[in-house]
Amino acid sequence: MKKITKETYLNWYEEMLFWRKFEDKLAQVYIQQKVRGFLHLYNGQEAILAGSLHAMDLSKDKMITAYRNHVQPIGMGVDPKRVMAELYGKGTGTSQGLGGSMHIFSREKGFYGGHGIVGGQIPLGAGMAFGDKYNKTGAVTLCYFGDGAARQGSLHETFNMAMLWKLPVVFCVENNGYAMGTSVARTANHEDIWKLGLGYEMPCGPVDAMNPVAVAEAMDEAIERARRGDGPTFLELKTYRYRGHSMSDAQHYRTKDEVAEYQKIDPITQVKEVLLKEGYATQEEIDEMGKNVKKRVAECEKFAEESPFPDVNVMYDVVYDQEDYPFIPHRL
Predict the structure, then answer these.
(1) Neighbours of 328 (CB within 10 A)
(2) pTM
């Protein structure tokens, strides 16, 4: 694994803080109705992305996830201004404003969505990995999904084929404790989701996903296994989200005390403590990073606010039309 250095911690802190503040701003403008539809925030889960990026080869590896997908493309290299513009529905967005919150996408940067269908990305992730194996690209796909999606039948079909064909894919369940408002304990007869991999003799296990170091180490092992042709791994990334399932979630299923307990092991705070303890940064330098993050977020907001909405014709430009389609009889 790439060594975790002072620079790693400095980058982790500033980037995770930026992701957190970026989404805090989204929550604010959502209330102002500048962002419409659904909005699923990642607050609390940032260590997963930070650790994963450390283990990935961003020149070829790919990522696919569900609808809690705003910060992942930013980590993969997509301009955050364009991500915010997409949420605003503006023409300068990643999908010209047509995708919105749940469908951020960037083939150029290896980020393949953003999927609104629960568990829909699981077989797609395996399909992407199949393509890389077939074409011998040496790339690995990281496929993320929530604990609720782990109950989908498509997961089992995908696991079976991925192991049979030794596909270069890492399956990652982001277990934040709740499928919408239903706790993991109420969705199955077991709470150790990682054990689903045992039925397919797939390497699997739990990971402390509030700690980017633990995530980086687990991801590195899984990615290297996939890259050398030994097939997939299934990781249960045990994390927590501080906000509701979406902005419309009243969160009646948990207490404020429960959230406060998890905030004591906040991934950003953990990294900050290492920076101070190891002398990697002073409090003044950390404060300066905070100011820089605030400035970057403001620039994203300004860009989104000032960008134009897409022309109505854009909606028609992305619709496929074949006049001689053979399976639909054309009537006079």
Answers:
(1) 7
(2) 0.94
